[in-house]
Amino acid sequence: MPTYTPPLRDMQFVLHEVFNVADEFKAMPAHAETDADTINAVLEEAGKFAAEVAFPLNIGGDTEGCTLDVKTHAVTTPKGFKEAYAQYVEGGWPALSCDPQFGGQGLPHTVNQCLYEMLNSANQAWTMYPGLSHGAYEALVAHGTEEQKKTYLPKLVSGEWTGTMCLTEPHCGTDLGLLRTKAEPQADGSYRLTGNKIFISAGEHDMAENIIHLVLARLPDAPKGSKGISLFVVPKFKVNADGSLGERNPIFCTGLEHKMGIHGNATAQIALDGAVGSLVGEPNKGLAAMFVMMNAARLGVGNQSLGLTEVAFQNALAYAKDRIQMRSLSGVKAKDKDADPIIVHPDVRKMLLTAKAYAEGGRALQIFCTLLLDKAHHHPDEKVRKNSDELVALLTPIVKAFITDNGHISTNACMQVFGGHGFIKEWGMEQFVRDNRINMIYEGTNTVQSLDLLGRKVLGNNGATLKKFGKLIGQLVEEEGVNEKMAEFINPLAYLGDQMTKFTTEIGFKGFQNPDEVGAAAVDYLRVAGHLVFAYMFVRMAQVALRQIAAGSTDPFYTAKLQTARFYFAKLFPETATLMRTARAGSKTLMDTDAALA
Fold first, then answer.
1. Which partner from 320, 392, 408, 547 sits 20 to 30 angstroms from 283, CA to CA?
2. Torsion over CA: 426, 430, 434, 440 (sign)
3. What is the helix (H) or strand (E) element at residue 65, kind and residue range?
4. For residues 470 and 459, what is the distance between their CA atoms, to the nearest angstrom?
5. How far is CA 46 from CA 75, 91, 304, 309, 325, in A?
6. Which helix (DSSP H) or strand (DSSP E) does residue 54 occupy?
């Protein structure tokens, strides 16, 4: 059976020593009272919930899955899921980072991100039920009417109701411009929606008394394509004027997907048969409103793979220390045993350190991004808000795609550490691999994220936002460039930072002549950009660790951090050279292949 220990020490290191979040919060009136002690106390309790309540349900939930009653359309979640959610609501966790005016606790997004990392390590399938509600909350805060906010937000914040995002349809996948669900306006100002949706995570369940669906649909006179999509809020149960639940709305689960992983989450096929809803935002501007929820979800999906990378690493490390097999190539290490623990073997260490480095780099990036979100929402300086928002937009596809790709690499590596036992269900490792695999697909496949990064976020504004991140790198290089102890960390970052401008310009020029060049280079480009960002994070972490050691600290944590950073720069970061070469190879060998793909 797997185990899980919340990585509180590393979270505190990144929060307080690398990014000094409490000082950052002092500049934001909404969070000025949030100090380090408060953050640590909240995360300690969050870790207990994750490890003691959610984690024990993970393997059982995977085995049991969800069940659908086809006559009533009711879905039953695995044993213990409903009770765990009630405990979650009772503890006030859904309200953690929500606005106090809707009943929230008003803590920073940064704290909520750490809560969700631990929940994802503990049980990704369970965590998706409350997790999707946050996206619905964000979309309604940004675009809902006052009546919609009053009706739905307090219940979403309390956790009494949950939310979903109903986007894709059987025929259209990611291309939402093709969706067909119709919304007919009614005399009373409401709309009746008819159509079918698929792949709706947490689309039906027994954990909350109402489910608030955010649905994309077309008005009768809507233009074709993505410019004709509107957003509607459609509750499972209609809500009476006094806030009580009314009659059942005809939005039903007609089937549950049979999936590779996340079996404990109800991935629903949804049919709308004249379901009553209300318009969110402006007509035909629904995709822009839904992007609030989608971007929150993309950051959340990166967090899912971060959580799985961490828990997989913890279990692989424990196994490698205990499992004995063969002798070390450099001589016997465990003289009292018939063989040495497999952790003595170089390639086992490589697999373990790969997961450790990708977990620690991902954690730093996630906290960096949510701190930017807090600044974008709450900093009094408009320029800071704007810069923070632009940087989050640039980094969102990297968080989603790079961290989930790394999660795939890491969970597979950790399963490999177990050898044959990794393939056996009760060890838990194969479930981490299966659960992670969806993270590379949903909320826009990682190729879609790559096209978004290169085409829209970088080339779309001539690299202006990329240059802003480049300035952060430049400041760090200027600060530590002459420090010999930092050379092994700062030099690779400085080199790639210089290369990135030329690399981007070259791809952009080729793409201007032939758009397929952007499509051919995008996936490799995002991975290079991901390493640029991770390198920046590891330099900042190494900087702090070296300063603490120089100040006399003997805490082995800092030594471990430096060793992990050295491994990252020596063994993982160098793939950027190959990626830039393959990106520069162009589109001809991909597109001039009709005979090969006949």
1. 392
2. positive
3. none
4. 15
5. 28, 10, 16, 19, 38
6. none
pLDDT attached to residue 481: 85
Amino acid at 118: M
Question: Distance of CA 383 to CAs 31, 32, 375, Å?
Answer: 19, 19, 10
CA Rg value for the chain:
24
Question: What are the backbone angles phi and psi of residue 74, rounded to the nearest 5°?
Answer: -85, 145
Nearest to 300 by CA among 131, 107, 537: 131
Count CB-CB contacts under 10 A for residue 512. Answer: 11
Cα angle, residue 446 at apex, residues 303 and 117 outer, rounded to 5°: 5
- Please state the separation of Cα 407 from the chain's center in Å: 11
- Is 443 marked active-site? yes
Instruction: Give 478: exposed, middle or buried? Use CB within 10 Å, 0-12, 13-18, 19+.
Output: exposed
Q: Which residues pair with 193 in a beta bridge?
A: 183, 275
- Give me the phi and psi of 6, to 5 degrees please: -55, 130
Rounded CA-CA distance 251/271 in Å is: 6
Q: Secondary structure of 370-419 in the HEC alphabet?
A: HHHHHHHHHCCCHHHHHHHHHHHHHHHHHHHHHHHHHHHHHHHHHHHHCH
DSSP state of 424: S
Residues 342, 5: Cα–Cα separation, whole Å: 22
Specify the length of the chain in residues: 598
DSSP collapsed to 3 states, 318-331 = HHHHHCECCCCCCC
- Reduced to 3 states (helix: H, G, I; strand: E, B; else coil), residue 537 is helix
Cβ contacts of 227 within 8 Å, gap of 6 or more = 284
- For the segment 506-518, the average pLDDT, to the nearest whole number, is 96
Answer whether 126's CB lies under 8 Å from 264's CB.
Answer: yes
DSSP string of 228-249? GBEEEEEESEEE-TTS-EEEEP
- Please, is 339 exposed, middle or buried when counting C-beta atoms within 10 Å of its C-beta (0-12, 13-18, 19+)? middle
CB-side neighbour CA atoms (13 Å) of 229: 23
User: In the structure encoding, which two tokens stand for residue 19, read together?
Assistant: 């990014």
Q: Flag whether pLDDT at 470 surpasses 90.
A: yes
pLDDT given at position 294:
81
pLDDT of residue 289: 82
Sign of the torsion angle spanned by Cα atoms 101, 104, 105, 111? negative
3-state DSSP assignment of residue 307: helix
Using alpha carbons, select from 62, 46, 49 the residue that is nearest to residue 1: 62
Dihedral sign, CA of 134, 139, 141, 146? Answer: negative
Q: Which of 138, 443, 480, 517 is catalytic?
A: 443
CA distances from 127 to 15, 133, 427, 436 (A): 23, 10, 21, 13
Cα angle vertex 430, ends 111, 14, to 5°? 25
Share of the chain above pLDDT 90, in %: 96
Contacts for 467 with CB less than 8 Å, ≥ 6 apart:
none
Cβ count within 10 A of residue 337: 11
* pLDDT tens digits, 173-194: 778 889 999 999 999 999 999 9
Contact (CB, 8 A) for 117 and 300:
no
